[in-house]
Amino acid sequence: MFKLITLQDTIRIPPQTFGNPLENVGREQVRSKYEGIVDEELGYVIAVTEVKVSPIGKIIPGDGATYHKVDFSLLTFYPVLQEIVEGDVVEIADFGAFVRIGPVDALLHVSQLMDDFISYDEKQGVLLGKETKRKLASGDHVRVRITAVSLGRAGSSGKIGVTARQPFLGKLEWFKQETEQSEENAEDKQGRIEKKQESAA
Predict the structure, then answer these.
(1) What is the pTM of this model?
(2) Are β-strands 84-93 and 66-77 bridged in parallel, bridged antiparallel, or unpaired?
(3) Cα(150)–Cα(172) distance, rounded to whole angstroms?
(4) Local structure of residue 78 (DSSP, 8 states)
(5) Are the C-beta atoms of residues 51 and 70 closer than 8 Å to each other?
(6) Strand 159-163 versus strand 104-109 pairing type
(7) pLDDT per residue over 140-186, tens digit each?
(8) CA triplet 47, 49, 53: central angle to 5 degrees?
(9) Which residue segments constitute the domains of the chain, with CATH numbers given?
(10) How far apart are the C-alpha atoms of 84 and 145, rounded to whole Å?
C-alpha cells in the first residue's frame, strides 16, 4: 500500500551551505537521510515530497552548523499482510518467480503458484504447470496476495512473500479464461434445464 506520511525532524545545515536557499539545502538533507531506506514503521521510503524548514535554527557549541526543525512528507510503500496487489514478473528461477510490487520484488514460490505440479524450463525461462499447461514467464502481469512481510533491519532490504493459489489470483489471463469457462458452463447448464422443462411440458 502506498502512503503519504507527514513527519517532523531536526536537520543539520552544514556551514559550507550557508548563503544557499535554506529550503533547497533542507530538502537535500532530508532526502539524503530518508530516501531509499527500509524502516519497520515507515516501510520502503520512495521519495521526499514537500519540505518546510524553520528559518530559526540553533547552534551547538563546538559545531559550526545550524540545526533547524523541518516538516516534510514522504511517499512510502508499506506492504500489508493479505493485501492483494498486481505486478510484473521480473525474474524466473527454479524455485519460483520474483514479482515487482511497488519499489520491491516479492517472492512467488513455486508451491504458491498454482494447484499443479510445476516444472522449470531453463531454456525458455518459464515455470510450467504439468496438467494445466499454464506458463509463467518474465514480463507476465500477475495478481497476488501478500502472505509474508519482513521489513529490513540494519540496512537489509526486507523480504516479501506472495501467493497466487487462490481464486482470481495468478496471471491475469488465467482467471479470464476461468471466468469465460464458468460462463460457458453456466450457459450449458441453463440450456439443459430449459430442455428438461420443455420435455416435461
Answers:
(1) 0.75
(2) unpaired
(3) 27
(4) -
(5) yes
(6) parallel
(7) 999 999 999 988 665 567 789 999 998 889 998 877 766 766 666 66
(8) 125
(9) 2-77 (3.30.1490.120), 84-173 (2.40.50.140)
(10) 4
